[in-house]
Amino acid sequence: MPPPTQPPPSSPDDPEPSSMGREMDDEDLVEELLVTVNSARAFTEFRFTQRKECANLLRWLQLILPLLEELHDATPCLTDDAYRRLALLGRALAAARRLLRSCHDGSKIFLALESETVLARFRDVYERMHSALDGMPYLELGISDEAKEQVELMNTQLTRCRKRTDTQDIELTMDLMVILQNKDDERNADRAILERLANKLELQTLPELRAETIAIKKLINERNGQHADSTKLIVELLNKFKEIAGVNENDVLGEVSMPKPKSLHKCPSLMIPNDFLCPITLGIMTDPVIVASGQTYERRSIQKWLDSGERTCPKTRQPLAHLSLAPNYALKSLIVQWCDKNKVELQKREPEPAGEQDEKRGEDIPSLVEGMSSIHPDVQRKAVKKIRMLSKECPETRMLIADSGGIPALIGLLAYPDKKVQENTVTSLLNLSIDEKNKVLITRGGAIPLIIEILRNGSAEAQENSAATLFSLSMLDENKAAIGSLGGIAPLVELLRSGTVRGKKDAATAIFNLVINPRNKVKATQAGIVPVLQSVIDDGGSLGMVDEALSIFLLLASHATCRGEIGTTAFVEKLVQLIKDGTDKNKECALSVLLELGSNNKPLLVHALRFGLHEDLSKIAKTGTSRAQRKASSLIQLARKCY
Questions:
Q1: Is the distance from CB of 391 to CB of 398 less than 8 angstroms?
Q2: pTM here?
Q3: Contact 205, 315 (CB under 8 A)
């Protein structure tokens, strides 16, 4: 007999209403319900990761409104049962409002990392609303048939929603997994993933990053020292997003986000006037200047902003009528006086570099691009090696290389017989592909089949970077299909089978992104990816890629053709072993794959249950990660239907 599923968790903030007494009179209760619903409906903008669930919840709150308005107008005398149900509904609606607020102004990074936990909170709200409305005494409340029908429709939808399968954004999950696991990878492949995450989570502009910093500070205060590991991950990701945006804010735990001067560390409670802080760096300004919009910035910071090609005010986003910088002598005097009074030593700024080196580099790039097309092999080798180094430096340099015709010149060298030249060339294209516009230029230039050829026959490092380049290019949806149709899947599978450890990781990341495309699922299966992934799982201890392999299996298992290849009793036994003995993340991923297979092939689930899986599922449903708990509970429910 399978163990019973666990009831939804109750909130300590919402005690069960007493049937022996009433906390407020009938009219006040109905009034409070109306206020709660209307205040919840006031939230209209939500974080990307929860936008769909918030829209559903708002729609259901709209459906319940006629019931509450009729009660408010009729002011009926409530029976004990009606009062109890409406009080329960009030607590469910209050929980809904808190959840909507959290998804409206909470930390975007936290909500992405904890998306499964947040989804569980939504389902708890649905369960509580359903329980309150199921059996509502409409007749004695004098509710119209129209309002009753709307509420019953909503309750039916809530019932269906509670049974809904996983709606996880698998691409977002994999991106987060890659970034958090590859902390020491200095190549630009991870930067490309970061840029995609920043775009998806809407953490690219200065105001967005500042709002996120404030949200994280609030989260840290609320946690009061608990969940330190999770908080550390959130702070690390925030700093990565700030780094790629060119914002030098690194310490979200302090009073200001910039590392403080030594004298400030001696008095951490000292409050720095907000006007003294540069809006870009959040550090105390030593040379404040005024721009055309009237805002004041540290000279070095705003000059760097303008040198990058920006022509708007970072704070207000208004177009700048001119680029002149006027010294703010009055503010500088106030800063100096405040620092003297509080014994704070201003950081001494090194003088700005003359810029001759940057100018010379800019002058060098066109000649280097020309050198890559030289008839002299030595000139070509030196030029492409230098371009590889320069393309790694900064967006401005990459833009200059592209504008100077560097991409067509590099594509022309991909077929060069010298393997070292191939390696430098494909790595240069990897660096350039960080920029979205360059992805298009590289693809249109016909680079993909040449990169695939290097993936097949290049040096070990060239193969690694070819896989990383294909991954970067595959961020454009049209390129996923193109890489598959041009034969890129099979050599990636081969690299996953026989490459270096780094090559295997690059191949797995690229394959994951490519098999999001349905046709590529079949191509990967035909290329023999199933036994290769099984070998990766078997060798999990040394490679540390079990979760990546299971994530790819989960994508493949959603396709009927691939599912037939994956769904063997031997593979199910591997999943059972991981569910029993794997890490928390292993268990979560293995449960997801088993649920996908078992939902479409009941005998496979029956086979898994023969290995004493009931006890493990029951334990995980109580103590596993939030996603693992949901998967385990779903498997328990599915198992009951197998007997």
A1: yes
A2: 0.60
A3: no
